Amino acid sequence: MYIEYAKSHLNFCKSIHKNEPNISLTKGEKKTLLPPPNLSAIKEASLWETLLARHTCRDFFDTSVSISSLATTLYGTLADKKETEYDAPIGAQKFGFRRTSPSAGGLQATEGYVWVRNVEDLAPGIYHYISEQISLG
Question: Taking burial as the number of CB atoms within 10 A of a residue's CB, which of 18, 37, 54, 56 is the most buried?
């Protein structure tokens, strides 16, 4: 049963592969380009240490966050990985984004929003992350 479902899904991916639309989603009028992400910080980060350091808080400090840190965090969690080599049948690897977070069917139907309160060089507000352009809208 599972094998047949997997085959059916891969056949579906093959059938829509050539019909993939070119999508550009922009919300908001003004775009803010973010600085390039600090890729070395992402590559050097230990998953275990990051998980241990993570916590939920209800108290916010008055210290600001750098726009570079915000850009790196958004890129690491929501940007397209743009992998060129992916071991999957034709069609499956080309549809949608290849993000670091999983998505049902690999469709990445999620949108990233950030509530900016105290980020250097960025006005407070709610922003939509546009991963293809590494910008906020």
Answer: 37
